[in-house]
């Protein structure tokens, strides 16, 4: 008790957690967000199959205990990680997201499909998904086997500021957060 170390970041986090909880419960009174509600909440309906697949994958990555719902703790963990996590943690998380078949490496097809989907959601980007994918592999597939290991991915992206920025931008959740923060309701 009375530990005197100041941890402003954590104080802010506690306040935020309460704020997020209120928003979350308002949107999702059951406290368990289904995939359908998740999509409705974010206005992600009527997507192309590829974009839809990406959203499914984001949902599954958030659903840490794999029970098919995002509960408040999982929701906070995801937000927390995406907003405030250390670069390492974030990259691990992105890696998991991009490794669609979960075999522990990212191949070109996986990266291409995720960037095609992201582009479908985010709209215009400077590079086509193909150009982007090829660039990423050129830069960070160190042993040139056409697959990105977790090591290659993390050390490669970490050591390349442009790439890091592009990867971070491609998974910018600020729109999502804005929607939730504004307390938008979806029809139940
Ligand atoms: Ca869950
Ligand atoms: Ca894979
Ligand atoms: Ca490799």
Automatic annotation (TrEMBL):
Extent of the signal sequence: none
Residues of the EF-hand domain: 50-85, 86-121, 128-163
GO cellular component entries: photoreceptor outer segment
Underlying gene: GUCA1C
Name of the protein in question: Guanylate cyclase activator 1C
InterPro entries: EF-hand-dom_pair, EF_Hand_1_Ca_BS, EF_hand_dom, Recoverin
Molecular-function annotations in GO: calcium ion binding; calcium sensitive guanylate cyclase activator activity
Domain of life: Eukaryota
Keyword Oxidoreductase attached: no
Alphabetical keyword list: Calcium, Lipoprotein, Metal-binding, Myristate, Repeat
Organism: Podarcis muralis
């Amino acid at each position: 008790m009375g530990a005197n170390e100041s941890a402003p970041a954590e104080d802010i986090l506690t306040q935020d957690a309460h704020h997020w909880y209120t928003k979350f419960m308002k949107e999702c009174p059951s406290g368990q967000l289904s995939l359908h509600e998740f999509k409705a909440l974010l206005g992600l309906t009527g997507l192309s199959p590829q974009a839809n697949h990406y959203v499914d994958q984001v949902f599954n990555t958030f659903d840490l205990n794999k029970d098919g719902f995002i509960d408040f703790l999982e929701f906070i963990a995801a937000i927390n990680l995406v907003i405030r996590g250390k670069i390492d943690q974030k990259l691990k998380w992105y890696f998991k997201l991009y490794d669609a078949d979960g075999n522990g490496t990212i191949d070109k097809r996986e990266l291409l499909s995720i960037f095609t989907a992201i582009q479908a959601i985010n709209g215009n980007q400077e590079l086509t998904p193909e150009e982007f994918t090829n660039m990423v592999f050129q830069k960070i597939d160190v042993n040139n086997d056409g697959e990105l290991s977790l090591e290659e991915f993390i050390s490669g992206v970490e050591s390349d500021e442009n790439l890091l920025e592009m990867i971070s931008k491609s998974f910018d959740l600020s729109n999502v957060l804005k929607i939730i923060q504004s307390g938008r309701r979806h029809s139940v």
